[in-house]
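Onboarding guide, step 5: your first structure request.
Type a short instruction followed by the sequence, for example:

Predict the 3D structure of this protein.
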Amino acid sequence: MRRRVIISVLAFVAIASAVLAAFWFTRPHPRIDDVTLLKIERGMTEQQVIEIIGAPPGNYGFGEGDIDMWEELLRSTTQLRFVDQATPGGPNAFDTRPTIAKDWLGADQGIRATFADGKVVRAEMHRVWREYDSHFDRLLVLMRLKDRKVRPLLIID
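The system replies with structure tokens like these:
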């Protein structure tokens, strides 16, 4: 009886490990960093950007994530590409074409590419805000051993 329980537990652990390994190795691992941002050029299509980053737009970090625009506005640390688009008198200063922004979110930073007519007109790196940093962090919050992260609000008078 005891031997049967040990074999069952070992079989369960082996199957669970195989499933987790298969999930980990088949999941895309995009390159979301400064080097990748520098490879994105104005005029590229979304497919070309996907090939550079290594995955379609999406969230590739732990849990729900969002680009942290408030912190970027306060600290002015956003790394921009194609700045002349917003420069008065620049080649695209009066460009009024409709645009769509697509985000690739990593663990702590994300790339936002803005497209007009299917071509990149702007690419930028932002910090990513996440309520939890890891599974362990979430567990600590659920057990009330750690306080939840509070997303700061920007109040303008």
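Each response can be followed by summary notes, for example: The helical segments are 2-26, 34-39, 46-53, 69-75, 135-142.
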